[in-house]
Amino acid sequence: LLTVALLSNLMAILLQALCARLGIASGRDLAQACRDAFPRYISWPLWVLAEIAICATDLAEVIGTAIGLNLLFHIPLEIGVILTALDVFLVLWMQNLGFRYIEAFVVTLLGVIAACFAVQIAMADPDWGAVIRGFAPTTEIVTNPEMLYLALGIIGATVMPHNLYLHSGVVQTRRFGDDVEDRREAIKLATLDSTIALMFALLINASILILAAATFYKAGKHDIAEL
Question: Please, how many CA atoms are within 13 Å of residue 94, restricted to the half-sphere of its CB?
Fold first, then answer.
């Protein structure tokens, strides 16, 4: 599964880099480019699929946050879902301050997550030799149906379609000149930016798998299905 996390991350890096090129070079985001390039009977289904992808991702975020609030503060799940929905309005309000404030806010949250995982992995003390070997591909991913199902989930959680639409628009919020050299420089910096961010995401995703293996699985708890 660590192999899948690594490969899906490399896929995401490539696709994000292509979106950065599209956004900066053409001044169009992926949605606008699809509308311009495809007839309506193709662009409308693409829009519906993007909306479904957003809903599927948001469902995991909302329920995950509600479960987290329940575990930490014993807040009922229903109220946790409402509080999480209200968080969205906080982020939308922050857009009035400027996009950089939202980025700083998200980076701060990611820093807290990374610090928590670092402490927990240090406490779990995994077999680091097995961790390193876990990044080497094996045939079990395709021969074991359960592992294949999990692998598809990891790919879907890393290479998210709506994120490509978003990234091709976000890169246009950067300040850069109109000539070719300025745009080349902007593409290079945007690609570096997204690559660093995605490598950080790989670190978090790998930490989730390593922590689960080093605590639950190592203790013989192979049948955990719910929190």
Answer: 13
Q: What is the DSSP string of 2-20?
A: HHHHHHHHHHHHHHHHHHH
**CA–CA gap between residue 62 and residue 153 (Å, rounded):** 17
Q: At what angle do helices 99-124 and 180-212 cross, to 10 degrees?
A: 30
The pTM is what?
0.80
Spatial contact of 189 and 173, defined as CB atoms under 8 Å apart: no
* HSE-CB for 41 with a 13 A CA cutoff: 0
Q: Evaluate whether 210 touches 117 at the Cβ level (below 8 Å).
A: no
> In a structure prediction context, what are the per-residue pLDDT tens digits for the chain, which is 227 residues long?
899 999 999 999 999 999 999 999 998 999 999 999 999 999 999 999 888 888 888 888 889 999 999 999 999 999 999 998 888 888 888 878 877 788 888 889 888 988 999 999 999 999 999 999 999 988 887 888 888 888 888 888 788 888 888 889 888 888 888 888 889 999 999 999 999 989 988 998 899 889 988 888 777 877 766 66
CB count in 10 Å sphere of residue 6 = 19
Other beta carbons within 10 Å of 153? 12
Neighbours of 151 (CB within 10 A): 20
Under 8 Å CB-to-CB from 108, ≥6 apart: which residues? none
Rounded distance between C-alpha atoms, residue 59 and residue 115, angstroms: 25
